[in-house]
Design a protein that fits this description.
The protein is an alpha/beta fold and 345 residues long. It has a single domain (6-344), classed as TIM Barrel, CATH 3.20.20. The protein has 14 helices and nine strands. It has helices at 3-11, 32-38, 43-47, 50-64, 119-131, 145-154, 162-170, 172-195, 213-219, 221-231, 248-251, 267-274, 293-307, 327-339, and strands at 68-70, 86-89, 93-96, 137-143, 200-205, 237-241, 258-261, 279-284, 313-317. It binds coproporphyrinogen III. The site of coproporphyrinogen III has 22 residues, from strand 3.
Length: 345
């Protein structure tokens, strides 16, 4: 059975001969091919070059032989047509020179994003479809409203999210207005990617774990519900809220087809919380790939033995591949998962 079928069958909870496998951040600085591309082009210019994005991901898929490609892009370029001045500093990550801090900042954000402003993302989907083998699945993605808001309000990466949390508590009305616009933008992006040929989409809520469950319910959950309703079940949706397994009972009430799980909870325990009627993706700690092969295989087998034969399981890391990762370790991991055979008993 080919990789695309394995992934789509897992997302529909149909039994598979082995779990499908792909890796978050499977194209990136740990790969020589990617570093070579980046010698000649800035990260943002790369994201806006569909041909080069497609080639970058196709190279990574070729090296790893994973079952799925995620488009090469980023969650943040969508903030540019929303009126934010985004830059990626060399080595330092994203910086937004004009963060969202008050009422006045709302005026510059369109209430509805014109899809033409992010046409390069949709072209990346169609170019990637052409660049990868037909038997691989293609995954589109966007940042979740909360995670996008955290960058828009903090002005970059953050540890404590002081500005964002203060804004949401002090001015819930303004918070809702901002979150509505980010929700719309994410929906416009994902719908366009689906139209352009994405087989499934993933929503990255990378910083959800900065919140406790009550705040997640109040300030984030309603917008996730709206976003998923806009997508309307056209293709399977994977929701990845990282960082705090205590959010899983709330997240599991969302109408997503699959849930990404980080390494902070045993995957079988996460699945109990989420419920047997949804698919689950995860959850190897990405730092395991920095260890020796024996450790990699032992940790991989632990996950496979716990859930590998369950319909609805997708093997992945619990977060993105780290730039320090030896490529041969990622290759060995993928091979190990592919060797796992679900017994018919
Ligand atoms: O291989 C893939 O997964 C495809 C592409 C992809 C990237 N970013 C490429 C990238 C995907 C799916 C993302 C998602 C993304 N981007 C997330 C959600 C996943 C997560 O990691 O939690 C987030 C939070 C971002 C925002 C972002 N982009 C940051 C904070 C940074 C700088 C720090 C870092 O980790 O590099 C980026 C840059 C980025 N996005 C790079 C890549 C390959 C590195 C750019 C470079 O230096 O060449």
């Amino acid at each position: 059975m080919n990789g695309k079928s394995l992934l789509l069958r897992a997302l529909r909870l149909q039994p598979n001969p082995r779990p499908p496998v792909w890796l978050m951040r499977q194209a990136g600085r740990y790969m020589a091919e990617y570093r070579a591309v980046r010698e000649n082009v800035s990260f943002l210019d790369l994201c806006r070059n569909p041909r080069l994005c497609a080639q970058t991901m196709a190279d990574a898929v070729g090296v790893l032989d994973v079952d799925a490609a995620i488009i090469f892009s980023d969650i943040l370029p969508i903030l540019v047509p929303l009126g934010f001045d985004l830059e990626y500093t060399p080595g330092g990550g994203p910086v937004i020179a004009n963060p969202f801090r008050g009422e006045d900042d709302l005026a510059r954000i369109p209430a509805a994003l014109d899809p033409d402003r992010i046409g390069f993302v949709f072209e990346t989907v169609s170019e990637t479809r052409r660049a990868i083998p037909g038997e691989k699945a293609l995954i589109g993605f966007a940042g979740a409203p909360w995670t996008l808001a955290s960058y828009a309000v903090e002005g970059g990466s953050s540890r404590r999210f002081i500005h964002t949390k203060t804004l949401m508590r002090r001015n819930p009305r303004l918070w809702s207005a901002l979150m509505d616009r980010l929700t719309d933008a994410a929906a416009v992006s994902l719908l366009g990617q689906i139209e352009a040929g994405a087989d499934a989409v993933q929503i990255f809520d990378s910083w959800a774990g900065a919140l406790g469950p009550a705040d997640y319910e109040t300030y984030v959950f309603p917008f996730m519900e709206k976003l998923l309703a806009r997508l309307g079940g056209r293709v399977p949706v994977i929701y990845f809220a990282a960082g705090n397994p205590a959010l899983l009972p709330a997240a599991a009430r969302l109408d997503a087809d699959a849930f990404g799980i980080d390494w902070r909870i045993p995957i079988e325990r996460a699945w109990e919380i989420i419920g047997a009627n949804r698919a689950v993706q995860g959850n190897l700690d990405p730092t395991v790939l920095l260890a020796g092969q024996e450790t990699i295989f032992a940790e991989t087998d632990r996950i496979l033995n716990a859930v590998g034969s369950r319909p609805g399981f997708i093997f992945n890391l619990g977060h993105g591949v780290l730039k320090e990762t030896p490529v041969e370790n990622a290759v060995a991991l993928v091979r190990r998962v592919k060797e796992f055979a679900v017994s018919s008993s």
